[in-house]
């Protein structure tokens, strides 16, 4: 599948080939797309497998599909019109989990709406802001996101409850760990010892294997599936509209980093599929679609979305640049998002199953950050920025009582790991002399 005619994003493969290719894009990002909603729902205190969590999962699927269509089909200047798959972003999990836990989902989603609108406006100036976010900054932020999330993954794998507290005597039991390790082993075997669609779906297949074992062990409760409707009821502002300046600032800060990441994905897609650089119009359009998708999702209870880098790899692997293939993937996600029983099946997944999957996913997020940092020469200046930024950001997250006297929202930001790491890294990169290693 390396026909050069498919290097044109406007060319569509035969439908018998386009649909399986679109499904491949869905399988590669499906688990990563719904996981942030599960984590934020837990932080907000929603019951695991309850209707609120199911609704957030539905919105994650629905608006991943809608944002993908914004990206691939386009509306005026919105959309890169490249094969870029959108999905719920891990980058926002730390901030939104903290806000949801301390101020509620209404504040968190309002911040997403406003942050998404600001993100949309970045499309007009994004090419002029890229200098502020060299690989040193973006790599540090991505690494901080992964490191922040890894303890959550371990708690899930050990059987931790949705509110991140230990689940009594069963926490860390052999039964929980056997399920989580099954997910990890199967995912790695499929990823590295198969090819094509199977390899791209390694984590999803691992989750299915863990789900099957959990069912045999009596850990699965299908009651929410039976009670779920067949067609979803979409609610505008399901948790109200509650403005908080600090929450908006935090989401906007992460949005800027997310926008820079999308610029990188747009550039990588153009290079992988057509061996060319992305145009300014494509980069601006990709950023507009990111922001619009985030804002619209926030109105209906969805979390912020961004481009998914793993799907760029599929474009490079298949050699098929067709944006219409990814449009099909977006339509599949929309259909899944409109069927609550799909969300209920996902919500019925026991925590150790999810834990096994996210150990791999969150570890890969951290590894992706290291990969970006590898583009930087490790000078004394660079290592100081990395050391101080990570120590500051992750340290406050691990010892939140160190800032217990800060006002509520400022404390939430200070202990989110991502925001303080990003702010410190940007500050140090701007003020430390470039020639300090001379």
Annotation keywords:
438 residues, mainly alpha, two-stranded antiparallel ribbon, 1% strand
Can you put this structure into words, describing what you see?
This protein is mainly alpha-helical. Helices cover 68% and strands 1% of the residues. The chain contains 19 helices and 2 strands. It has a two-stranded antiparallel sheet with strand order 1-2. α7 packs across α16. The radius of gyration is 21 Å and the shape is globular. About 1% of the residues have low confidence.
Give a quick summary of the entry.
The chain has 438 residues and is mainly α. The protein is built from 19 helices and 2 strands. Helix 2 runs antiparallel to helix 12 (280-299).
Strand count: 2
Portion in beta strands: under 5%
Helix content: 55-70%
**Assembly annotation:** single chain
Task: Kindly report how far apart the N and C termini lie.
Answer: 50 Å
Low-pLDDT stretches: 162-167
pLDDT averaged residue by residue: 84
Number of helices: 19
Topology:
Layout: H1 15-43, H2 51-72, E1 86-88, H3 93-103, H4 105-121, H5 126-129, H6 135-157, H7 174-193, H8 196-200, H9 202-216, H10 223-227, H11 245-274, H12 280-299, E2 305-307, H13 309-318, H14 323-337, H15 340-347, H16 351-373, H17 380-398, H18 408-414, H19 418-431
